Amino acid sequence: MLVPSNRLIFWCAATLLPAALLLTLAPHLLWLAALLAAAVCAAGAIDAAQVRGTAVSFALPEVTNFSCGRPGALNVRLAFPAALQGRVVRLALDVPAEAGVADAVLDCRLPAGTEQAHIAWTCCPVRRGTLTVRHAACEVTSGLGLWHRIHRQAVRSALRVYPDLRGEQRKIAPIFVRRASAGAHACRLAGKGREFEKLREYVPGDDLGDIHWKATARRRFPITKVFQAERTQEAYIVLDVSRLSGRLLGDDAQTVLDQYIQTALTLVLAAERLGDRCGLIVFHRMVVRFLPADSGKQHFDACRNALYMLQTEAVAPDFRDLFAFLRARIPKRALMLFLTHIDTPALAEAFLDASRLVLRQHLLVVPLLTAHDAQPLFSTPPPETIDDAFRDLAAHLHWRDLNALERQLRARGVQSSLAPVRKATAVLGAHYLTVKERQLL
User: Fold this and answer.
1) pLDDT tens-digit map of 25-60
2) Which of 136, 180, 200, 438 is most buried as measured by Cβ atoms within 10 A of its Cβ?
3) Phi-psi region at 193: left, alpha or beta (left = phi > 0; alpha = psi -120 to 50)
């Protein structure tokens, strides 16, 4: 598509208007007016012919990975004819605003001596998910600057924006440093373990419950089973995407679900570091994602791809369906790390009733995560206004209810603790390491 430039409009106004005025005032100078008009038209036609066939072809990668809030680059490969070597062209991409592109339009000089070029388009995405680039355009200015040739091209490139885990990894790193299981030194693990290692002769003081009676009958003297601490355990992260996960955290645009996703991916990395197998379960009124416990880079990529596009569903969670699924699909005893909200009486009652299905089969860890303030009275500076006083009183009542719920969970054998949502990674990481050190599985 040819578009007239401001220079062409100026010269047309500077020549054709005086020619028309000259023709009106002095008809005998018709030849001069025609000569001026013909000169302008000839210059425009010749200049327009020079930019024909000077289109730039775009080639974008099919998929480019980014981290939310971290700058990255979208690599664009250009192919152009020899006539454009060393010329300045204007390039544009139809990129969504969430991609955080500083300059959607770039003026760049094409290299001489080659017909290809590479451009790194700087992006800093602000929202996780998949963003699509559908169109690209190039504008070439003619030699005299009278015309702009605009070439549009349909492209297909996906920008995958994953959560940024740097902040969550910094939160959980001190826990690994403080615990005895971290580092390259020997440490004592509580308990005798549950994984069978070998049989040996009975030694006075061995537990009678560890005697292998069939082997004893065959050999006609007591034989004892020896167990070792399990180094590889199974853990599952159970993530809730129901309506309460859409609540905002403070004044920023981050939601509870965003924090859940960052915590889940960080715990998957932590489990791999400890040599365990970690799985993933996503639910609302039904289970919508299930990844069996595994380890390795491919498994982490599968977990990340399953989580980065999750959105909140405007439904209430169905804990009975969830626990029936856990009982049927995960027969081996495993650690269940929950990322959910049960801070309302109805949700807490539903969770307590449904959890009976798996309490004897699995070990549950349910931190009471609060999106709003929940703290005892007089733990903060005195209120300055009556509104602050009522706000502190509401936070105290909320804290009291959550503490009562925590006692109920512990009485059922469920590990729990009260913490803000932003500290979910540190709290679950501490519970996880405690379970592993004490061999509670």
Assistant:
1) 777 666 676 777 777 777 777 777 777 767 788 889
2) 136
3) left
